[in-house]
Amino acid sequence: xxxxxxxxxxxxxxxxxxxxxxxxxxxxxxxxxxxxxxxxxxxxxxxxxxxxxxxxxxxxxxxxxxxxxxxxxxxxxxxxxxxxxxxxxxxxxxxxxxxxxxxxxxxxxxxxxxxxxxxxxxxxxxxxxxxxxxxxxxxxxxxxxxxxxxxxxxxxxxxxxxxxxxxxxxxxxxxxxxxxxxxxxxxxxxxxxxxxxxxxxxxxx
Length: 205
Hints:
This is DUF541 domain-containing protein. Helix content is about 30%, strand content about 40%. The chain has helices at about 35-55, 95-110, 125-150, and strands spanning about 5-15, 20-30, 60-70, 80-90, 110-120, 155-165, 170, 175, 190-205. Residues about 170-185 have low confidence and may be disordered.
């Protein structure tokens, strides 16, 4: 059996977000599937055109999901069918959320839904490097302490494994109303945290 000590060290760093992710949805209930799908398709195209007009590049627009299903109602009432289409939007303009929301509401009216928004850091490489350094320093300090308690001297590293956790700041889903956003809404990005955990195996000297 290998001898030595295995410890876990954690390093956490924070950074200022530089990307805003927004997920809009377009939903419509109609008496038949064809009408529901056609209506959602038309309104989705209008929303996408409105977002492009606000400066969102084609590469930062993507379809998130397309769904069609029966809208269940009380017994004895006519059947309905709900079609939906989600649009994922990415922008570097962290202050432009209110303008994007207003443009989408103007385009889709009460068919628009807001599935949420989150802030992110596009390039996390430098933050990950610092988080790893802090995690390793903590792991080594733990190992040295355990070695001294056991009456051993710490040797070389024999194995390392890493886990990574990123916690973007986000807001939850809601339905938008065509009259609810007459003024621009400002959102504050705050900071995002990145955490790296390292399991480090040390041999005895």
